[in-house]
Amino acid sequence: MPTTLSPPYSPKTLKHPRSLPRSLNYLLKEQRLLFILVGILIGSTFFILQPSLSRLNSSDTHSSIPRLFPVTNRESLSNPFRGVSSYGHGKVSGRVPVGIGRRRLRIVVTGGAGFVGSHLVDKLIARGDDVIVIDNFFTGRKENVAHHFRNPRFELIRHDVVEPILLEVDQIYHLACPASPVHYKFNPTNVMGTLNMLGLAKRIGARFLLTSTSEVYGDPLEHPQKETYWGNVNPIGERSCYDEGKRTAETLAMDYHRGADVEVTDRDIDLYMNCHEMLNLL
Ligand SMILES: O=c1ccn([C@@H]2O[C@H](COP(=O)(O)OP(=O)(O)O[C@H]3OC[C@@H](O)[C@H](O)[C@H]3O)[C@@H](O)[C@H]2O)c(=O)[nH]1
Questions:
Q1: Across the strands, what pairs with 174?
Q2: Going from the N-terminus, what domains does the chain have, and what CATH number goes with each?
Q3: Nearest atom within ligand 1 for CA of residue 213
Q4: Does the beta carbon of 196 sit less than 6 angstroms from any atom of ligand 1?
Q5: From atom 33 of ligand 1, which residue's Cα is the shortest distance away?
Q6: What mean pLDDT do residues 213-231 have?
Q7: Is the beta carbon of 211 within 6 A of some atom in ligand 1?
Q8: Cα torsion for 277, 114, 235, 219, to the nearest 10°?
Q9: Start-end of H helices in the chain
Q10: Membrane-crossing residues (predicted)?
Q11: Which one is predicted more confidently, 88 or 11?
Q12: 242 catalytic per annotation
């Protein structure tokens, strides 16, 4: 065999890995480094300024809405969300870059055909969320929400919250409650209804807002009532089933929070007549 023939296979010579000085050299050539630094600077300025600008905008829009009552709420005892970022506008604590808008939420409003509920529904729909109203029309009226009927983001279910219901939502605003003495005497909504809705919140991991009332303090001896005040209550009076019902609902809500990690907040809706405020609570 002739020895001059070249071997059938010659291994490829390995490229030298780029050495550090060569990479630096590449970066420094043609002012590439300068361009990178300017890019980083522009990017960070944008992300730093953007949240402050959007905060400015949102406070502008809020300023036209008068706060009807001082915000002395029942928060410090019962709101485990303090310090937790809220989905609502104006309270967003994280920085959300432009283009990544607020996620559209699916929300249940029980008692959404009532006075307070229907105004809350208007606000939620205007904010861009999907809203399901559950109401048995005990005291509420279909007409209160009729203007949303053609909106695909709105649903109305005739249902008594005293019976369980299964829905997939992110938040539950629980307002269903017989509000006048003639009605609330005969109705276990506050206990059974709240229990069912808390059970739902627990199963699907939804946040829960309970609309309470200053009547839980009974005939208070302190004015205004502080979070730490427990009230002066009459458990056997004419109106007691309303107060006791709401108190039980609060107890249940806190038990579900402590025992099942349900994120709850309960609010004295007498002080929170402004639905705009309520919107930012969950
Ligand atoms: O068992 C019931 C009772 C009542 N409801 C509904 O719940 C709604 C209650 O609305 P109302 O207009 O009577 O009362 P309001 O809107 O004034 O107050 C309501 O929201 C704020 C809460 O603090 C009150 O306790 C609550 O009743 C009605 O639409 C009623 O039909 C139920 O769906 N199920």
A1: 110, 210
A2: 74-82+103-279 (3.40.50.720)
A3: 23
A4: no
A5: 135
A6: 87
A7: yes
A8: 50
A9: 20-28, 32-62, 75-78, 115-127, 181-184, 194-204, 240-260, 275-279
A10: 32-49
A11: 11
A12: yes
How many Cα atoms are found within 13 Å in the side-chain-facing hemisphere of 13? Answer: 2
The region, left, alpha or beta by phi > 0 then psi within -120 to 50, assigned to residue 276 is alpha
Structure tokens at 61: 């829009």
pTM: 0.68
Residue 97 has a pLDDT of 57
End-to-end CA distance of the chain: 88
Q: What is the pLDDT of residues 139-149, one digit of tens each?
A: 999 999 999 99
- Distance from Cα 64 to the centre of ligand 1, integer Å: 28
Residue 135 in tokens:
């109401």
Strand pairing partners for 211?
Answer: 267
Q: Is the CB of 117 under 6 A from ligand 1?
A: yes
pLDDT per residue as tens digits for the range 6-18: 556 655 555 555 5
Ligand 1 pocket, mutate which of 115, 172, 212, 278 (most atoms under 8 A from CB): 115
Which pair of tokens denotes residue 212? 């309470």
Helix axes of 194-204 and 240-260: crossing angle, nearest 10 degrees = 20
- ipTM for the predicted complex: 0.96
Over residues 147-193, the pLDDT tens digits come to 999 999 999 999 999 999 999 999 999 999 987 777 766 677 788 99
pLDDT of residue 239: 80
C-beta 138 within 6 A of ligand 1: yes
Q: Which amino acid is at 182?
A: V
Q: Which residues of 133-143 are buried (b: 16+ CB within 10 A; e: fewer)?
A: bbbbebbbeee
The reported pLDDT for the residue numbered 271 is 45
